[in-house]
Task: inverse folding
């Protein structure tokens, strides 16, 4: 070959070949995977969630979340956005003096939204620790009935002799892991110890082993500072450090093949799942002879941040479907919100055993138009409460999503009406709770008022339809409001109603119907526009006009039609 082509041609061929290799592996990754050119992003209406933003200064810049599904509390590691923009060592931001020094763990009672919709938001106190905290990822374990927190802390570097700050853009952050125990009565995090080690280079995520002693941190880069960090997006970088809480010792336990190691989760079988932000890989590691050897890998096709293993064993990932938009949102977080995707690898332990390389990755929710979700770096799935919590390192709010009641149960009245108007097959398909396989009403099925109210969408807006005084709205999270719904003149209702409007719009047979609604938000709390359907008089909204909008459903009584229609519309999508 060499003789025919000559050395010069050969070297050109090698250059072309090398370029091809670089193109296919790196450039292709950057264009199609990281930036996401050509990726289909779906609108949030395609997914069965009602999502509400919760905005408060205590919920800014929350990089990571942890759910206590037993005690029904959500913990968030937050700061202020100004601070994130000044001091984010992971993003090469090193202005020590511009930190707000307000980093904190925020707490929400996830089943008690309260009338202000803030879920009893407060922050944990700190005891026995007198420096600032500069938070990032964290993990929590229940150890003998007490919650222990492992918090990544990006301390500013300090000259040990003079006590002055060093130039962090040269030496980087002095990142450590702080261990705290939560005193639940005083809601105070009591400092247990600081774990400092050379193996904790650029920590991002942390996952604690079952025994509550061993923990693994991801280093998102190879070095704290320096020009080579920029190249790592192309050539990869990062590592895993394995540490012991008792001895405070850490060592690098894996450092090959990472591409911005970021989120990490741990399961009961001793697997660690690690998200590679740039390549969209999730690698699976096991501790063998103090090394975290890679036993598997999963291609998700999305750049990702944090991972969460939910109570059903599904691995949930906060992904970036449009990385350029995410980057923009970090620069102007109050005005720009990026699309977000939440991926789920259902039953990951089982998939590891049975499917080999053919992992199934599905979308739990996506928000193409950034209507409700934050520019998310973490998503946590609450299996018990049918909720999703999302937060973002550069977001001014978090978002709480509640699953729309698919398979919603019918009131006795609606079940009866449905049997008159639908085929047995349709009944069984539409509502397995209320009807058996041959379409007969199940006698054991519970009924409203236990059950959720009928729910519909019209003009793309969710509607909850209630029969005043006869069918109070009783979806459990809204139980607080249900009494108030019984009477429009009730002062509780007036108090609760600031975030929503209800009004009588139909008067069939003297039975007023109430329609309460809001845009894509929790209908009973959120601010926004919600007056479209609610008119002070009937003059501009006739029964026919409403039915036209909701669809025409035979010749039932008008209020039945609305209720029934609302229900079946809901289960159809
Ligand atoms: C760091 O932040 C302070 C306070 O906001 C500002 O005055 C200073 O110019 C910043 N320094 C750099 C290097 O950007
Ligand atoms: C880093 O933090 C550790 C733990 O507080 C401290 O002992 C050490 O002096 C710090 N180093 C620098 C360079 O700030």
Result:
């Amino acid at each position: 070959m060499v003789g025919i082509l000559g050395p010069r041609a050969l070297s050109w061929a090698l250059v072309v070949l090398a370029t091809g290799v670089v193109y296919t592996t790196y450039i292709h990754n950057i264009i199609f995977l990281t930036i996401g050119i050509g990726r289909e992003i779906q609108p949030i209406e395609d997914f069965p969630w009602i999502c509400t933003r919760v905005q408060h200064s205590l919920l800014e810049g929350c990089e990571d979340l942890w759910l206590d599904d037993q005690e029904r509390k959500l913990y968030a590691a937050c700061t202020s956005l100004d601070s994130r923009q000044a001091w984010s060592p992971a993003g090469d931001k090193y202005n020590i003096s511009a930190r707000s020094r307000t980093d904190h763990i925020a707490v929400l009672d996830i089943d008690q939204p309260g009338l202000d919709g803030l879920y009893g938001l407060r922050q944990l106190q700190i005891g026995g620790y007198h420096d600032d905290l500069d938070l990032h990822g964290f993990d929590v374990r229940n150890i003998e009935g007490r919650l222990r927190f492992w918090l990544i802390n990006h301390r500013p570097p300090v000259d040990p002799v003079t006590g002055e700050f060093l130039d962090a853009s040269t030496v980087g952050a002095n990142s450590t892991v702080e261990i705290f125990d939560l005193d639940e009565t005083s809601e105070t995090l009591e400092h247990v110890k600081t774990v400092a080690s050379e193996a904790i280079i650029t920590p991002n995520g942390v996952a604690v082993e079952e025994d509550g002693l061993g923990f693994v941190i991801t280093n998102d880069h190879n070095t704290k500072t320096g020009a080579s960090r920029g190249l790592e997006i192309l050539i990869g970088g990062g590592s895993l450090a394995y540490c012991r809480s008792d001895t405070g010792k850490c060592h690098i336990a894996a450092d090959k093949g990472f591409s911005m190691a970021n989120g990490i989760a741990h399961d009961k079988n001793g697997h660690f799942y690690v998200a590679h932000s740039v390549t969209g890989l999730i690698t699976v590691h096991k501790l063998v002879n103090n090394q975290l050897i890679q036993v598997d890998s999963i291609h998700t096709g999305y750049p990702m941040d944090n991972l969460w293993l939910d109570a059903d064993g599904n691995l949930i990932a906060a992904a970036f479907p449009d990385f350029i938009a995410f980057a923009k949102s970090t620069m102007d977080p109050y005005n720009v919100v990026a699309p977000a995707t939440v991926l789920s690898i259902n039953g990951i332990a089982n998939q590891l055993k049975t499917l080999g390389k053919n992992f199934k990755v599905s979308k739990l929710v996506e928000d193409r138009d950034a209507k409700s979700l934050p520019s998310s770096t973490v998503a946590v799935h609450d299996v018990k409460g049918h909720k999703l919590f999302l937060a973002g390192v550069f977001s001014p709010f978090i978002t709480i999503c509640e699953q729309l009641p698919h398979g919603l149960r019918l009131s006795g009245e609606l079940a009866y009406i449905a049997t008159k108007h639908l085929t047995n097959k349709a009944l069984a398909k539409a509502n397995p709770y209320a009807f058996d396989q041959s379409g007969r009403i199940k006698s054991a099925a519970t009924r409203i008022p236990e059950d959720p109210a009928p729910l519909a969408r019209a003009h793309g807006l969710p509607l909850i339809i209630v029969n005043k005084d006869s069918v109070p709205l009783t979806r459990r999270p809204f139980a607080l409001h249900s009494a108030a719904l019984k009477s429009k003149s009730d002062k509780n209702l007036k108090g609760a109603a600031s975030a929503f409007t209800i009004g009588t719009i139909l008067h069939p047979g003297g039975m007023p119907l109430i329609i309460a609604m809001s845009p894509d938000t929790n209908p009973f709390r959120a601010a926004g526009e919600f007056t479209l359907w609610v008119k002070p008089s009937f003059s501009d909204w006739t029964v026919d006009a409403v039915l036209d909008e909701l669809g025409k459903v035979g010749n039932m009584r008008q209020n039945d039609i609305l209720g029934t229609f609302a229900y079946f519309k809901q289960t159809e999508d």
